[in-house]
Design goal:
Elements (H helix, E strand, L loop, with lengths): L2 E6 L2 E6 L5 H21 L5 H57 L7 H35 L1
Antiparallel strand pairs: 1-2
Helix pairs in contact: 1-2, 2-3
């Protein structure tokens, strides 16, 4: 089990971690050290326990704010996903109506403009499906991060 020497708030700590977790632990220690540095700037005479407690609380507060932001982002993604589904359904309905209209009235041959609109509609439906798929992946990632 690897052991790391970490400096937090001017104090040195020896910490053991799982193999492969060294970089993650170094990053976490760096965040904690930055918070400890802010505390030491305003109150240099503090005990080690108090310094680590306050630093941890500040990081926890930051994390809570980020979790709120992630939840809000997930809600925005869900709302966007719903709007995409509605647009997709409308586009499919328009395409079906256009196809029905042209098949029920063969004497009304579709002009080039109408055919272009149908092709653009089909392309839009395909693009919306891709966007919906991407939004689903992002929402799943956000939910996984919140868990």
């Amino acid at each position: 089990m690897p052991e790391l020497i970490l400096e937090i708030g001017g104090r040195v700590f020896e910490v053991a971690c799982e193999a492969g977790q060294e970089a993650s632990l170094q990053k976490a220690a760096s965040l904690l050290d930055a918070e400890a540095g802010r505390i030491l700037e305003s109150a240099s005479a503090t005990t080690e326990k108090r310094l680590l407690l306050l630093s941890g609380l500040m990081l926890a507060d930051t994390m809570a704010g980020l979790q709120d932001e992630l939840r809000n982002a997930a809600e925005v993604l869900r709302a966007s996903e719903e709007r995409v589904r509605i647009a997709e359904a409308k586009a499919a309905m328009l395409a079906a109506n256009a196809a029905k209209s042209s098949s029920s009235h063969p004497s009304l041959a579709l002009g080039q403009d109408a055919q272009q609109l149908i092709a653009e509609n089909e392309a839009a439906v395909e693009l919306l499906s891709k966007v919906l798929s991407d939004l689903n992946e992002i929402a799943d990632q956000v939910e996984a991060e919140l868990s």
